[in-house]
Design goal:
Blueprint lengths: L2 E2 L3 E6 L3 H11 L5 E5 L12 E2 L1 H9 L3 H6 L10 E6 L7 E4 L14 E2 L2 H13 L4 E5 L1 E9 L2 E8 L5 E11 L6 H6 L3 E16 L1 H6 L6 E7 L7 E6 L5 E8 L10 H9 L6 E15 L3 E2 L2 E3 L5 E2 L6 H22 L8 H32 L6 H21 E4 L15 E3 L23 H4 L4 E6 L6 H11 L3 E6 L12 E4 L5 E5 L6 H8 L6
Parallel strand pairs: 1-11, 2-3, 2-11, 3-8, 5-13, 11-18, 22-23
Antiparallel strand pairs: 4-7, 5-6, 9-10, 10-11, 12-15, 12-16, 13-14, 14-15, 16-19, 17-18, 20-21, 22-24, 24-25
Length: 533
């Protein structure tokens, strides 16, 4: 008979980066969780390397930013930028790509780059330091059920040594694209196949490092090849000078044994070099989006909720944002201050952001690359190609600036009629409901991000300070945790264009206004899911 485990607040199935990040987020809010992960150690596949400035803000609040940066596998004084090349890496046609430093002023932290297994190791160590988290490594979920009282997750040790029943108020599946929790919840998916088989190679090469020294400060390289119709050949550094990963489309039916992968690497670079292949893996290139991220007490996040080709580093960063969005909402429900619509707002906010990411950035990039390759050929019309290539290089800056996920139009965020959450937008300093809060210095010298608390935060600037007490009373009546920052105002803070800014626990703006606009109780009630004061 299975052993019955002690109860917990939340069971998290899947202890990769997203699941462990969620457990840490919950723990820092005083919420207990049991984290179930099938692998005793992180898997040594160097995927999910690009961590955006926004993702590093999560690591800041989770208390492990410094540890993550210390785990970096490329030296600090070497850059982590990227480039796009035509034909081969050494063709002579290349421009800078994904220049994240262009949006650095809008975030509190720098971006980072390291293999996912190194990120997971840092998160595991942080989780081990938090008593609210019980970790079960080497265990797999076999099913999940729910009723009005809570959930039950059935797990089994992968070595066959035992079985357990885990009981909690909620369960979250962070268990990948073949999610057991998603299947148990009966959540359907919308899928879009691209009819492409992709290969992932991990290999060692010293000579490749020497060949690419002509591109100083670059750590990832995207090759547009005319025959691939917009799909990429992609190289990434794992360390400086030795280990690399590569992914690209390959013919259907390709296996480890019937294809010359070294020749593919040489062709993609445009020169021979030493190659020692350490790993070969395959996957089908497709998009899959869960039609809901919640079914009752069962939730999904990360690849369990959405999966897509590894284009632009969106995957792991999108998963971390799922965790940040869901963590405070589960805490609110467990602590009794969530309104009836708060948990449903997780799907309402996060699903449209992924749909927009897939449509407006990944699929658009594939389509734009395909159209460019069909229209321009340096052998056919060199002058036209050079002009178009230069224009692409100039336009490459816009992709980073245009990726600005927001929740304007969410049921818990006031917005102009017709707006819906999405990933496309612009970065701006002005505080706007549903947008990420830009960090600015307070009058006492601290950055506002150094003053934000784990709950809601009211930033009352100048004349807005007169209404701070009314917000505090309304929050107390609703049971909503609210910290108040009162500031006399400055030229820097005037850039927010608001004197009252209500910031959510995930650093998104719930309300921004000036003067007497809005009733504090109504504003707070909407921000926590519509519960009446």
């Amino acid at each position: 008979m299975p052993d019955s485990s002690p109860s917990s607040d939340v069971v998290i199935v899947g202890g990769g980066p997203v699941g462990t990040g969620l457990a840490i987020d919950l723990a820092q809010r005083g919420i207990r969780s049991i984290l179930v992960e099938r692998y005793p150690e992180p898997q040594p596949i160097p995927r999910g390397q690009n961590l955006t400035q926004r993702t590093m803000e999560h690591f800041h609040f989770w208390g492990c930013e410094a540890a993550l940066r210390a785990a970096r596998t490329v030296p600090r004084d070497y850059g982590i930028g990227g480039l796009t090349a035509y034909g081969t890496l050494l063709s002579g046609h290349a421009y800078d790509w994904l220049q994240r430093e262009l949006v650095r002023p809008f975030y509190f932290t720098d971006n980072e780059r390291l293999p996912q297994y190194a990120t997971e190791a840092v998160l595991r160590r942080r989780a081990a330091a938090l008593p609210e988290i019980e970790t079960l490594y080497g265990w797999s979920a076999e099913g999940a059920t729910q009723d009005a009282a809570g959930v039950r997750v059935d797990i089994a040790a992968r070595d066959g040594s035992g079985r357990r029943e885990l009981r909690a108020a909620y369960a979250v599946g962070c268990d990948g694209s073949r999610s057991v929790v998603r299947e148990a919840a009966g959540i359907t998916q919308t899928r879009q196949d691209h009819d492409r088989l992709m290969v992932l190679l991990v290999f060692r090469s010293h000579e490749l490092h020497r060949l690419l020294e002509r591109f100083p400060g670059k750590s990832f390289y995207n090759v547009l090849h005319p025959e691939l119709k917009g799909y990429w050949r992609f190289f990434g550094r794992v360390d400086l000078g030795t280990t690399w990963f590569f992914h690209a489309p390959v013919p259907p039916g390709t296996t480890r044994d019937n294809y010359d992968f070294s020749a593919l690497l040489h062709e993609s670079v445009g020169a021979p070099f030493d190659v020692a292949i350490e790993h070969v893996g395959f996957w089908d290139l497709r998009f899959a989006t869960a039609d809901s991220y919640r079914a009752g007490r069962l939730f999904i996040a990360g690849d369990a909720a959405h999966s897509h080709p590894p284009y632009g580093g969106y995957g792991i960063n999108t998963g971390f944002e799922d965790a940040a969005n869901l963590g405070w909402k589960l805490a609110a429900a467990l602590e009794g201050w969530a309104g009836p619509g708060l948990l449903d707002s997780y799907t309402a906010e996060r699903r449209p952001v992924f749909v927009s990411t897939a449509r407006d950035f990944i699929e658009r990039a594939i389509r734009d690359d395909r159209e460019f390759l069909e229209a321009h050929d340096p052998a056919r019309d060199p002058a036209a190609f050079e002009a178009a290539w230069a224009a692409r290089g100039s336009g490459a800056k816009s992709e980073v600036g245009a990726y600005a996920p927001h929740y304007a139009g969410s049921p818990i965020v006031p917005a102009e009629p017709g707006l819906v959450p999405g990933a496309a937008g612009t970065h701006a300093v002005a505080a706007r409901a549903g947008r990420h809060l830009t960090p600015l210095p307070l009058s006492d010298g601290r950055n506002v991000y150094e003053a934000l608390g784990p709950g809601f935060t009211l930033l009352a600037i100048g004349d807005g300070r007169a209404r701070a007490a009314a917000f505090a009373r309304a929050a107390a009546a609703l049971g909503v945790p609210l910290g108040v920052i009162e500031d006399p105002g400055s030229a820097d803070l005037a850039r927010y264009e608001a004197d009252l800014i209500l910031v959510r626990p995930d650093q998104f703006v719930a309300f921004a206004g000036a003067g007497p606009a809005g009733d504090p109780a109504a504003i707070l009630a909407r921000a926590v899911g519509g519960r009446a004061p």
